[in-house]
């Protein structure tokens, strides 16, 4: 999102009914922008009415303006524009104080006095660092007739494209009108905005043929019931999603087209490993799948064999220490004293009560909904004296376990109707957490699969597509979550940049004794020396997660819920409710997208955050109220460049205090009553439910760590550094502090005459690699100490 200078500020209207005449006098005052920079003109408009008729001759039509310090700047009468409309233009000085200004209107007519306020922001201008996003319509696909294809950027930008399969540059054709595509064509395109930010090149392939194209998609086979532990024989059905032949084995061997052909349900009465795959009529075969059925009288073995389920507290008979450890963890408490939040040192907070985000805002008023993924037994942490009595171990230790909240007690109960095993079998076959245990909550944050994080989806637990996630895919490293997020006494390592609590002092890193150990020194490990020099200042994720919201090759879209394609949420507005078939409730209108380019920022491991009851602050770089930001800078120690998901939300703000409102989502989801949900939220926050509010744009940054691409798909040097003829398309390094510290003519003559600039590679090879000169010769930062470079000639 760019600076919201073009939006009209939301209006605060105060209406009071006259006891004498029963007439309603109303006054509203607004500014033409929500945010200004010094030197700009603030255009102010007031509307003064009696009932619905404009008042044209008030005895008073005063406007006052105060800056962010409270100092009065002007007190004057507004110009009468007719029909009850009044205007005034105030030019800000070039040295105007930044912050929230107060615009106050006071009008009077026949003894009826009304006052109204507006609160625009004045912020210093900042470089635009957000790349544009181009959409294409219709999408690439198979068509039998010619298509008129439109390209649209979400801001003022130039769109470059090619139709011959080559990669477009700024020397390519410029889009100006719909493209007529009448033959099979590969369209590649990208947009570059007026600030020089370019999005990653996108591709859409249009196959135009009078006859259907050849089928190259493998079928997908599902099995019912799923593999698991059962006490009785099971009738197992295999179903393909298209016309296909299903081959299978039940002896553990890998099936081929010479194996048994499935034709009717299989009766499995003893422990069996079923392997199967389908081959369609076009000859496309899916990867072999496996389902293991354990058939026995108890379904379990080992120390838990023979147990009978008696309730969620039964684990305490043997695991009191583990329960006590977990009760003190972030997974249970949802809050801790802040250890990595720079603007709130030592403050205790987190998702439980204080944290705010650009998704559901805050948990206030809707614990039953927000707490559906909590590891407890249903009660809110802090409301139970002995927290160990409120822990549901099975949510992490039994993948077949399902639960539902009792509408009367608010506590969770087993949902056996949705389970493939009994509760006795569930406690008899407990196991360490598997990926699906973690993803049932962490992949579904924000209301649906893949919506929140941008780099986590349900399919991360089962995918065979290593190009989607080389770490988690079964054909890649097939890592479990715990291999990176190690546990110590039920406290987990790792913290997202937008999360408040810290659960463990153990850090998560790529170079460990078991993974990428040759890169632990931060100056070696890659075959290319130039890449090794980046390791101290560029995070692995920056090169190895070139995009997010990517779709796995084996993903299957649920056409009913709309989930399953790994698209992630980029924006939501609480202004407009829409019905969610997936969640069977009203939800805010959400924008989702695939294959997004990250936003890049420096990060030192600490964050700035907005919490409930804070006064909201506008970020001049985006023009939005900021919710979370990574800390760090080009000169900050222990700082690296990381990729982030950038997320926006239109949500309510209390006009008088400037605080974001924790809209009551339980009211909103049930009724779609926007005003009612906001008023309930004001009440929950201890504010007057009748107070004025406006809808504002907020945003946050979320660090990307998952869906790591194979090294062959990592970013290449030119993507970030560009070449002499083609600008960088992945990021704008100059806007991030890597620009020359002065004009080229000034910088170059420190050592020699003014020369034409060669390529980035040639320039740095000569000055840094060969001569060992420090970055500070040309830039405003130094790497002398960490790289052993010279600061003098």
Observed structural traits:
mainly beta; 11% helix; globular; 29% strand; 793 residues
Describe this structure in words.
It is a single chain. This protein is mainly beta and 793 residues long. Helix content is 11%, strand content 29%. The protein is built from 15 helices and 43 strands. Strands 36, 37, 38, 39, 40, 41, 42 and 43 form an 8-stranded mixed beta sheet that branches. Strands 1, 2, 4, 5, 8 and 9 form a 6-stranded antiparallel beta sheet that branches. A hairpin with an 8-residue loop joins β28 (272-280) and β29. α10 runs antiparallel to α11. The chain is globular. Mean pLDDT is 89; it is low at 1-21.
Averaging pLDDT over every residue, what do you get?
A: 89
Cα-atom radius of gyration: 30 Å
Which residues form runs of ≥5 with pLDDT under 50?
1-21
**Which band does the percent of strand residues land in?**
25-35%
Would you report the number of β strands?
Answer: 43
Fraction of helical residues: 10-25%
Distance between the termini: 44 Å
Task: Give a short synopsis of this structure.
The chain is mainly beta.
Record the SSE blueprint.
Elements: E1 12-17, E2 24-31, E3 35-36, E4 41-50, E5 53-54, E6 60-66, E7 72-77, E8 79-82, E9 85-91, E10 99-100, E11 102-109, E12 112-118, E13 121-122, E14 134-137, E15 141-143, E16 147-153, E17 157-162, E18 173-174, E19 179-181, E20 185-193, E21 202-208, E22 221-224, E23 228-230, E24 234-240, E25 244-249, E26 260-261, E27 266-268, E28 272-280, E29 289-295, H1 320-327, H2 330-333, E30 336-337, E31 348-349, H3 367-370, H4 394-397, E32 403-405, E33 412-414, H5 423-428, H6 435-442, H7 481-484, E34 487-488, E35 491-492, H8 529-532, H9 540-544, E36 568-580, E37 585-593, E38 599-603, E39 607-609, E40 618-619, E41 624-630, E42 640-654, H10 665-671, H11 674-684, E43 693-703, H12 717-721, H13 744-748, H14 760-770, H15 784-787
Parallel strand pairs: 3-13, 15-21, 23-29, 36-42, 41-43
Antiparallel strand pairs: 1-2, 2-4, 4-5, 4-9, 6-7, 6-11, 8-9, 10-13, 11-12, 14-16, 16-19, 17-18, 17-20, 20-21, 22-24, 24-27, 25-26, 25-28, 28-29, 30-31, 32-33, 34-35, 36-37, 38-42, 39-41, 40-41, 42-43
């Amino acid at each position: 999102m760019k600076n919201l200078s073009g939006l009209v500020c939301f209006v605060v209207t105060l209406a009071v009914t006259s006891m004498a005449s029963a007439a309603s006098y109303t006054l509203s005052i607004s500014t033409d922008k929500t945010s200004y920079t010094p030197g700009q003109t603030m255009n102010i408009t007031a509307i003064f009415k009696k009932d619905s008729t404009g008042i044209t001759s008030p005895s008073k039509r005063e406007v006052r303006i105060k800056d962010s310090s409270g100092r009065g700047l002007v007190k004057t009468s507004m110009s009468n524009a007719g029909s009850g409309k009044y205007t005034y233009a105030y030019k800000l000085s070039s040295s105007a104080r930044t912050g929230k200004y107060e615009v106050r209107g006071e009008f009077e007519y026949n003894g009826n006095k009304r006052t109204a306020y507006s609160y625009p922001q004045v912020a210093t201008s900042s470089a635009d660092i957000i790349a544009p996003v181009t959409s294409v319509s219709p999408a690439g696909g198979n068509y039998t007739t010619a298509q008129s294809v439109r390209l649209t950027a979400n801001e003022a930008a130039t769109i470059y494209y090619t139709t011959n399969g080559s990669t477009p540059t700024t020397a390519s054709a410029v889009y100006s009108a719909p493209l007529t595509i009448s033959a099979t064509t590969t369209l590649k395109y990208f947009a570059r905005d007026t600030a020089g930010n370019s999005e990653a090149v996108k591709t859409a392939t249009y196959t135009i043929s009078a006859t259907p194209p050849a089928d190259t998609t493998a079928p997908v086979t599902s099995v019912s019931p799923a593999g698991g532990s059962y006490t009785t024989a099971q009738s197992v059905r295999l179903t393909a999603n298209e016309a296909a032949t299903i081959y299978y084995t039940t002896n553990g061997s890998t099936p081929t087209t010479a194996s048994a052909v499935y034709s009717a349900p299989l009766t499995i009465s003893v422990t069996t490993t079923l392997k199967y795959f389908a081959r369609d009529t076009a000859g496309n075969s899916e990867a072999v799948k496996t389902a293991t059925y354990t058939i026995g009288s108890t379904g379990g073995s080992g120390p838990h064999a023979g147990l009978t389920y008696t309730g969620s507290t039964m684990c305490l008979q043997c695991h009191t220490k583990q329960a006590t450890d977990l009760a003190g963890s972030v997974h249970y408490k949802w809050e801790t004293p802040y250890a990595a939040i720079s603007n709130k040192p030592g403050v205790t907070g987190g998702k439980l009560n204080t944290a705010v985000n650009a998704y559901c805002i805050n948990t206030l008023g809707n614990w039953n909904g927000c707490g559906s993924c909590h590891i407890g037994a249903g009660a809110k942490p802090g409301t139970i004296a002995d927290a160990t009595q409120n822990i549901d171990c099975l949510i992490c230790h039994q993948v077949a376990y399902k639960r539902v909240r009792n509408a009367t007690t608010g506590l969770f109960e087993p949902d056996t109707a949705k389970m493939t095993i009994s509760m006795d079998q569930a406690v008899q076959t407990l196991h360490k957490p598997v990926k699906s245990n973690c993803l049932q909550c962490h992949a579904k944050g924000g209301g649906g699969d893949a919506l929140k994080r941008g780099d986590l989806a349900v399919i991360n637990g089962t995918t065979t597509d290593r190009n989607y996630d080389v770490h988690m895919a079964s054909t890649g490293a097939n890592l479990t979550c715990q291999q990176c997020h190690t546990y110590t006494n039920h406290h987990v390592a790792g913290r997202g940049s937008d999360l408040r609590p810290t659960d463990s002092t153990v850090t998560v890193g790529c170079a460990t004794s078991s993974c990428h150990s040759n890169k632990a020194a931060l100056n070696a490990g890659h075959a290319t020396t130039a890449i090794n020099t980046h390791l101290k200042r560029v995070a692995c994720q920056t090169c190895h997660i070139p995009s997010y919201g990517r779709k796995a090759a084996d993903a299957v879209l649920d056409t009913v819920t709309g989930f399953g394609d790994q698209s992630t949420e980029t924006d939501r507005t609480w202004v407009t409710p829409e019905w969610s078939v997936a969640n069977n409730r009203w939800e805010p209108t959400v924008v989702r997208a695939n294959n997004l380019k990250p936003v890049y920022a420096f990060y030192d491991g600490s964050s700035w955050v907005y919490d409930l009851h804070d006064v909201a602050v506008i970020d001049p770089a985006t023009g939005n109220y900021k919710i979370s930001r990574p800390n760090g800078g080009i000169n900050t120690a222990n700082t690296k460049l990381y990729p982030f998901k950038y997320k926006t939300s239109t949500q309510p703000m209390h006009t008088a205090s400037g605080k974001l409102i924790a809209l009551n989502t339980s009211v909103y989801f049930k009724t779609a009553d926007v005003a009612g949900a906001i008023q309930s939220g004001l009440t929950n926050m201890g504010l007057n439910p009748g107070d004025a509010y406006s809808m504002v744009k907020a945003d946050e940054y979320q660090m990307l760590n998952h869906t790591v691409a194979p090294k062959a798909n990592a970013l290449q040097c030119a993507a970030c550094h560009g070449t002499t003829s083609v600008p960088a398309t992945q990021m704008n390094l100059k806007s991030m502090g890597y620009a020359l510290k002065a004009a080229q003519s000034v910088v170059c003559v420190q050592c020699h005459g003014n020369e034409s600039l060669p390529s980035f590679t040639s320039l740095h090879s000569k000055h840094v690699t060969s001569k060992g000169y420090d970055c500070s010769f040309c830039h405003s930062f130094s790497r002398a100490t960490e790289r052993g470079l010279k600061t003098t000639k």
